[in-house]
């Protein structure tokens, strides 16, 4: 018997050590990666930013904001001309409230007839994060050694205006005094009025309002303000694009789907079965179990109920935080914005790589004096990605947009797009589905037919999530993407923007 075992072991050894053993060399892996990456570059639609199209601004004041694309610190290529700086929110000569902006003209394939506005959320988080790590012409993502050209830049579609708003965000100046989203929209429109007086060649463009996270509140209210004040801006608002947005109550977007989300990604969370049983029992007690199947039907059977007596989690039912604490104990790098991250936490030039800020050995990129000088930012401001200043001094008194202005915006827009990353835990896609099924627009409540699986087809890649369109609203779910879709799935975000702008017939 012993001799037979030895013969078997020797035979096995010869399989793994002989000439027939499988060997994958790094060069072979790299060549296959290159071939695979080609599928993400559709023919001629996405280009590395070359010399941008020329826009000449005649107002002498515009020259004060000009940024030389060869002088951006750490960027070893010419990003082309742009304009940035502080702009007041009103024409009052004594106005002290100013918003910081960075404007880029379109790349060689982009449209000169359109203007994309972008804002990050928070509230109080900087839109320069979106520019540098999501959809800007140059990109310095988490874990990258230096900036690179962003072939999925939205400047390959049209001009883009990134704005740090509201007052109190990023480099923006002044004392915050807004009470609600109507105040925020009024101040943003006031800023846009001053911006268009300096950059008047941008008047009469088609406008698209975009953003992510708390911008799910910002953007619909700004859009509604523009639609209800049609003479306020010499721009033609066409539609909105919001990713992983705050649309409804936290109990709906976080708590109800939390345990089901853990089951969906059970091997990622890696909880033991005892804890999973405890979660399941808590979900039953809190009336979260089976909620989506029972209430978020297609079409809905009526207004969807809250699982308890409150718009927030009742005592003992904050399962989202229970899950977060447990996940963080197992995985010190657990990232609520994209659950696949593991230890160690990657370095981030903006100091916010995941669920918590990271101590940097050097100043944050936008807090460097040379960067501030290059983009006309105030040098006396200590820049942070998300402000410690309360931009709503007494809280945001506005209701979530799905209950108020979002239906009107959808009805008045040519197209409206909601995008959601399926690997986002801070706001969960199934929660967005509940909000949509509880919202009435175009004379009907919710989507009337189910969202088909594998229905979001990305060019050159294939199915990468789910897509559904009814009555002017398109809802997209993106597989593998976390909270910041243009960062985690840039081609999917780019393609969805092409659709919003009418550059393609389907998303």
Automatic annotation (TrEMBL):
One of its GO terms (molecular function) is serine-type carboxypeptidase activity. The keyword Hydrolase applies. Residues 1-21 form the signal peptide. Keywords: Carboxypeptidase, Glycoprotein, Hydrolase, Protease, Signal. GO terms for biological process: proteolysis. Its EC number is 3.4.16.-. The keyword Protease applies. Pfam families: Peptidase_S10 (PF00450). InterPro entries: AB_hydrolase_fold (IPR029058), Peptidase_S10 (IPR001563), Ser_caboxypep_his_AS (IPR033124), Ser_caboxypep_ser_AS (IPR018202). Belongs to the peptidase S10 family. This is Carboxypeptidase. The lineage of its organism: Eukaryota, Fungi, Dikarya, Basidiomycota, Agaricomycotina.
């Amino acid at each position: 018997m012993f001799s037979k075992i030895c013969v078997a072991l020797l035979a096995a050894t010869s399989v793994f050590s002989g000439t027939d053993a499988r060997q994958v060399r790094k060069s072979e892996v790299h060549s296959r990666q290159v071939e695979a990456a080609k599928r993400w570059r559709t023919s001629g639609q996405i280009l590395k930013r070359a010399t941008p199209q020329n826009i000449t601004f005649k107002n002498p004041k515009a020259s004060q904001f000009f940024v030389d694309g060869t002088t951006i610190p750490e960027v070893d290529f010419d990003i082309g001309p742009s304009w940035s700086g502080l702009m007041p929110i009103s024409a009052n000569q004594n106005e002290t409230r100013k918003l910081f902006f960075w404007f880029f003209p379109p790349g060689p394939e982009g449209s000169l007839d359109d203007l994309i506005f972008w804002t990050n959320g928070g509230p109080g988080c900087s839109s320069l994060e979106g520019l540098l790590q999501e959809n800007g012409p140059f990109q310095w993502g988490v874990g990258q050694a230096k900036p690179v050209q962003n072939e999925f830049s939205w400047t390959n579609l049209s001009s883009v205006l990134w704005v740090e708003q509201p007052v109190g965000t990023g480099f923006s100046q002044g004392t915050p005094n807004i009470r609600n989203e109507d105040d925020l929209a009024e101040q943003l429109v006031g800023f846009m009025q001053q911006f268009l007086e300096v950059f008047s060649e941008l008047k009469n463009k088609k406008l698209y309002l975009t953003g992510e996270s708390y911008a799910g509140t910002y953007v619909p209210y700004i859009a509604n303000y523009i639609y209800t004040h049609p003479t306020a801006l010499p721009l033609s608002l066409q539609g909105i694009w919001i990713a992983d947005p705050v649309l409804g109550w936290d109990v709906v977007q976080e708590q109800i789907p939390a345990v089901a989300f853990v089951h969906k990604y059970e091997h990622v969370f890696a909880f033991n079965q005892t804890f999973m049983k405890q979660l399941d029992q808590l979900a039953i007690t809190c009336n979260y179990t089976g909620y989506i199947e029972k209430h978020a039907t297609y079409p809905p059977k009526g207004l969807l109920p809250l699982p308890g007596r409150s718009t927030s989690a009742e005592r003992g039912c904050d399962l989202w935080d229970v899950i977060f604490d447990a996940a963080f104990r197992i995985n010190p790098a657990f990232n609520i914005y994209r659950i696949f991250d593991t230890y160690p936490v990657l370095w981030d030039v903006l100091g916010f790589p995941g669920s918590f800020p990271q101590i940097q050995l050097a100043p944050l990129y936008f807090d460097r004096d040379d960067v501030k000088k290059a983009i006309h930012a105030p040098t006396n401001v200590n820049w942070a990605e998300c402000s410690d200043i309360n931009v709503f001094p007494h809280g945001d008194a506005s209701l979530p947009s799905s209950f108020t202005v979002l239906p009107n915006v959808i009805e008045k827009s040519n197209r409206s797009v909601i995008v959601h990353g399926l690997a986002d835990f801070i706001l969960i896609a199934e929660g967005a589905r509940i909000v949509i099924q509880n919202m009435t627009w175009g004379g009907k409540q919710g989507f009337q037919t189910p969202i088909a699986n594998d229905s979001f087809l990305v060019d050159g890649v294939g199915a990468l999530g789910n897509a559904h369109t009814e009555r002017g609203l398109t809802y997209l779910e993106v597989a593998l993407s976390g909270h910041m879709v243009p960062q985690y799935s840039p081609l999917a975000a780019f393609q969805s923007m092409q659709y919003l702008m009418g550059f393609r017939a389907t998303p």
